[in-house]
User: What shape does this take?
Amino acid sequence: MSGINCLPLIREKIPAAEVLMLTAYEDDDNVFRALKAGATGYLLKSCDAEELFEAIRDVHSGGPAFSSHIARKVVRYFQAPIKTVANTKLTARELQVLDLLATGILYKEIGESLGIGEDTVRTYVGRICAKMHVRNRVEAIIKYHQ
Assistant: This one.
């Protein structure tokens, strides 16, 4: 079971537990899924020992703890304006995919850029098309730029 999938069980069994994720995954999906599931902090395994100890102290004293790279992702997410396309709100991730689609790069390259698989990119494109009421990615890009 992944750490993210384990979080709700930990919260259920020990509601007062503070969970600090230590992971190699830094893509937005994993970061935000972990936070939504109840993680108090999110560190990358590449952090040094002092950063890890500092994070444990921060969480123990009641604060959150994030690798600086992850903290910037969280801040950018909340600072980003919410764009509406055809009166339909797209999620932050769908907008990222649509922005990259508009540059003309391949699904594989979009996946590599966002740290997700090519099939996941296809899923996002399908959702984007459904929300925008278009038949394909070309129509989505055209509508996006109007």
Residues 19 and 39 are 5 Å apart (CA to CA). The chain has a mean pLDDT of 86. The longest strand covers residues 20-23.
